Structure of Protein kinase domain-containing protein:
Amino acid sequence: MKVKPYANDSRKEGASKDDQLSLDVNCLNLKDEISKDIRNNGNQAQTFTFEELVAATDNFRSDCFLGEGGFGKVYKGCLEKINQVVAIKQLDQNGLQGIREFVVEVVTLSLADNPNLVKLIGFCAEGDQRLLVYEYMPLGSLENHLYDIPPNRQPLDWNARMKIAAGAARGLEYLHNQMTPPVIYRDLKCSNILLSEGYHPKLSDFGLAKVGPSGDHTHVSTRVMGTYGYCAPDYAMTGQLTFKSDIYSFGVVFLELITGRKAIDQTKERSEQNLVAWARPMFKDRRNFSHMVDPFLRGQYPIKGLYQSLAIAAMCVQEQPNMRPDVSDVVMALNYLASNIYDPQIHPVQEPRRRPSHPGSDKDDGGA
């Protein structure tokens, strides 16, 4: 794979990789993106040569390919330098925007230290190659466990879903309340929640992250970015990004966990294609709640827990941002739900809406 020279740059071929990252930051003038403290600490992650990453993936061989997101392809590799299996994301070479996302991700994760955020092991910045090296998450993304489930894989049970929701909320709480400066994630969705053994969730992909408002400011004005179906309507309409924008996205993910439905599903009837639009009228009557739950749960869920979880989701996806809860309140509620372990041997099994023939079968029978 040929490495092209970095366009419009006076870098020397022998420049160090740390210098390359610094030049990226300076070139982008990221004062509005990240603080000086973060920029100065953006080299805490290890640096790898492009040659090392080519060797780790056997020249990005097809059977090492894990998936593809908005910013590049992800490969599984084994780095001899650290004797570790890793995930390597190769960013698309699409100019300054791609470099911006690369830098923001490196500096955000270099300072982050939380069990619910994916660990950035290192990066490569050579020529116009930009690669990120993460800890490998063996269970893949939450999306892999909710949709198109193969027949040999068991669907997530109620306890796993609550555990994942609570952990994802704690990761978001860390970004909002414990990082300095606080960070708005801006890209919370099922495909960005990775799972380690035991369904331990970790937020990933921070290329769209933004430093949150400070002082008397209530929002950050920015170009609308994110994923359709997860993006808060107030942010989509005004470009005013707030911490409550993330809360809306979390509410959508939580609804996906409860219902097994996608945020946007164009295979359904028009009135059911948008998950939030479908759910809102259902929230008004508890008699609808059993029709909202994922049929793959086969009736094995606590009815009180279902009511409580849907109440949380409904608050998170309120149209008015000031009506959405703070992340700390969400964490408190979900920690409580996750701590109440459901045992189908003890608790009554609810009458399921439909019993699929196997986990990989079509989830929806049009009866919702």
